[in-house]
Protein 1
Amino acid sequence: MAIGMRTSVRLSLALLVLLILVCCGGLVSRLSAGEQPADAANFHRDRLVAWCIVPFDAKQRGPAARADMVRGLGLSRVAYDWRESHVPTFEDEILQYQRQQIEYFAFWSWHDAMEPLIKKHGIQPQIWYMFPQPAGETQEQKVQSAVQGLLPMVQKTAGLGLKLGLYNHGGWSGEPANMVAVCQVLREQHGVNHVGIVYNLHHAHEHIVDFEQQLKVLQPWLLCLNLNGMNDGAQPKILPIGQGQHERRMIELILKSGYDGAIGIIDHREQLDAELSLQQNLTGLAGVLRALGQEQAAASFGAVK
């Protein structure tokens, strides 16, 4: 009887182990297949980052009207782009975002007038920084040249406790492999851990075909990924999400990659009211998410126009 019971226990344990292996194997298989998350929280409306809404706004809103517009669209994060004429209103912009409980998510490039304001108001925007084509003949020389040129801004942002995002804008400095190489040298040779990459689809039409591979290269370093409608040959360069040939596939790849960082939508059409431009992107993105089965994320958009 005891022998029979031991045999039964062994069989039960063996079946349990087999069941666990089968379940785990199925999980690994599903993960390796790159399934979408059940809910892509970073695509929810209130997590999106509004970008290129200051000098590109046909209405040329001031800080208060812009904050009202952003909040009225159900958005709560802004990456702030500017021109010299906007410098006198830097502080008011911060105050108006605080009034509307909008996160001052990022600041374009740099201006010394921002340093005391960052300290005064306790904000921590990412600094989105485009670095020029570096000198050098070999890849190693170019990477080292880029690193040396970036070190002053690296040190400034470190001292302020801010993340520094290398911003793709075409050329050598906008290539994912080159941007990653610069980040790696900064980390490995200079002990820098606050530098990453801001990647913009509207400056990445040359990587439509191999976007999945480029995303794998970029993903460990991404601070923000800005979406755009994507047609072959950048015709046109700026296009609302959902109106292009390729962005649905690209967004599906983003979802399957497991990237859970910030997602941006852009205005960047100076002939249009920024509110209309952002609304077009919200409407299009909601449609793409719904088509991809992301019902919770799509539902966060509410009744988009």
Note: The chain is about 45% helix and 10% strand.
Protein 2
Amino acid sequence: MAGSVIGVLFGLFLLFLVGQAFWRQIRFLLSIGLRMVLGGLFLFLVNCCAGSMGFTFGINPASIITLGLLVFPGFLLLAALKFLV
């Protein structure tokens, strides 16, 4: 009985250590994922508001990733590419 309790406690301790080791990476990926979702929503809103003036962005994985990783400079980059092409 005592060996089982010690084994369970040791397993929980190992799970805690593994969680601590990967927490930064998981938090980083979650923040980028949240930024990508918000970036896609922002592109959708820009397309809805400025679409009547003929200013639209393509909502595709490349533009969402660019906006998710670079945020405002990414939006400026997409706008510059839109005007150049």
Note: Residues 22-84 form one domain.
Protein 3
Amino acid sequence: MPKIKTRRAAAKRLRRTGSGKFRSHHAGARHIATSKSTKRKRGLRKATTIAKADQRRVDRMIPY
């Protein structure tokens, strides 16, 4: 059986944790920051885990 190709776009945006979950950055942190509160912007800086509903799909994108 041939090896599965990794989706390079997903590999650049996500990384796997030790427990097998995926870490990613928050959306909405790039521009139009003046309308967002300081607390909100500070929270957007931190990485987050992807939703459980997306876990299976991302697992196929990044098999190794």
Note: The two ends are 15 Å apart (CA to CA).
